[in-house]
Amino acid sequence: MVRRRLSWLLLAAGSMALVTWLTLGHYFIRAHRALLETTLDWARPAAASNILIVAIDNSSIEAIGRWPWRRALHAELIRRIALGSPRCTGLDLILDDANSHHAEDDPVLAQRMKAAGCVVLPMALQAASSEQLQSEVLPSAPLAEAATALGHSHLAISGEGDIEGTYLFEGFPGRQWPSFPLALYQAANGSLQAQPSHAEGAHRSP
Q: pTM value?
């Protein structure tokens, strides 16, 4: 009886030690993430053949110059893309006033966006460094006015730095922005929902 009880105690202690080791080492989380990634890879549909990605990569930076590029260059890119008559173009760059080194380029880019017919721009929500208040980062006024729609570019990041997904809508009560991909999809398919007004500028949490 004593040996049997001792065996059960050793088994329980070993099990607790194993669970503690797995928990502290985040092995359960890693296993869950690996299983989730495997499931998503298996269930993920193939990318649509009618989507074209024009990426900014190292070769582009080597050829054109260091970042950030002038917005007049983005205007020329929009013009060339528009020659292919896409249903809609998503320019996934935060083009707020703070990043505008050549303010004279904004009207040029805005004109090209309007001429293209359908261009979606991203906006962002960021925390102020002092009081950690959330505030909107919107494109400059000419670009926000020229854009067909705006969508938030926030991604959900895990503690390990992995991208877990995105929120379909994010923002303040009564002022929810769709995700950038959702806004682009809706604009391309003529199903764009009403968006918050950007006329009065960016909002921040009280």
A: 0.75
